[in-house]
Amino acid sequence: MKTTVTITVLFLAITFKSFSQNIHQKIDSILKVTHQKNPNISISLGLVKDNQLYFKAYGNLSRISDQKVDENSLFEIASITKIITANLIAQAQLEQKLKITDFIDDYLPNAYQLNKNLQQKIKISDLASHQSGLPDIDFRSLIMANSQQPTDAVNQETLSKIINNCNELIDFGNYRYSTIGYILLGQILETVYKKTYPEILNENLIQPLKLTSTYSTDFNVDNKVQGYNSEGGTQELFNWGITGPAGLVKSNTLDMVTYLKIVLNQKSRLGKAAILCEKIKYNKDGRQLGLGLNIIKYKKNTVFLKTGDVLGQSSIIAYDREHKWGLVFFLNQRNHSLRQELFKNIFEIIKTK
Question: 325-335, pLDDT tens digit by residue?
Fold first, then answer.
């Protein structure tokens, strides 16, 4: 009997290993073909499946460098920052520092004076699910003024003017992607913790997960990847500033897969916060959103997903809690169509049939 059990366990272990290797080989094949078709674009991918980690990368740190990209290479995670900010908000609820159903009025810095029409109307969850109705920053004008560092021009005065001059929420309760909503969430975190966002990020994410290459303010490292805009011109990584909680964190695939691994552990603090973020807060016209997360349902699969695009890089992070996998990859060029194509092809491999 004991021998039979031992043989069965060994067989299952070998089968699982072969299955995992098959997935890895297929993903590697997709990445290799993608890079052959786009030799100037570097790709770094990380996958966690059934608690096992896998990394693969193609390309160099820049088009004039011989140093290869790997899981330690630093990228801009762009708007993936938003799911980190949302998770920190959920952690604050777990600590009873706020409730996501609270109105934002009492949590905002004194620089904001909400118009009477806006008072006791916008909830924290509205900011996090892009349905607050607040006007947003005019990034088109900022890019025209400074294409390398457009966010440098945004300060507290800029934000106060936008919020304090708003007297009507023209599309409250409807989806409209919002950068300013996540900047406000970052400031709400600073209010309840009485610390700066980088300090909160460090104490509630970087230190507990022992992340070694996730940065906010200081990211002057040797293995930083050069970004390129959609036309192929060089693009600087954005400086840290007041818009940081919406999209300015820098990291690598190793740290982000470590993040995903802990998110998939529903007993962890981060996992419990992620489960709060996964609850549907917006459900209209075929679009479902949690806190910072797009919710994609396909047959047996429920995928929580966030994309990121800055002027010089594109990224995506996705996971399926039920089927125990998580994926992240970075491109060192702004190319959302290639990102979407790559994710679609990889999803075909790892999804549950």
Answer: 999 999 999 99
Which range marks the domain in which residue 255 is found? 23-101+195-350
Q: Which two tokens stand for residue 258?
A: 């470590």
Q: Please report, as a single letter, which amino acid is at residue 294.
A: N
- For the stretch 160-195, pLDDT in tens is 999 999 999 999 999 999 999 999 999 999 999 999
The reply to whether 35 falls in a domain is: yes
Q: Are 250 and 214 in contact (CB under 8 A)?
A: yes
CATH code assigned at 34: 3.40.710.10
Residue type at 152 in one-letter notation: D
**Cα–Cα distance for residue pair 47/69, rounded to 1 Å:** 16
Model pTM score:
0.93
Compute the CA torsion angle 160, 238, 310, 73 (nearest 10 deg).
-140
Residue 285 lies in a domain: yes
CA-wise closest residue to 246 among 101, 132, 83: 83
Is position 305 within any domain? yes
Residue 179 inside a domain? The answer is: no
CA angle 208, 214, 218 (to 5 degrees): 120
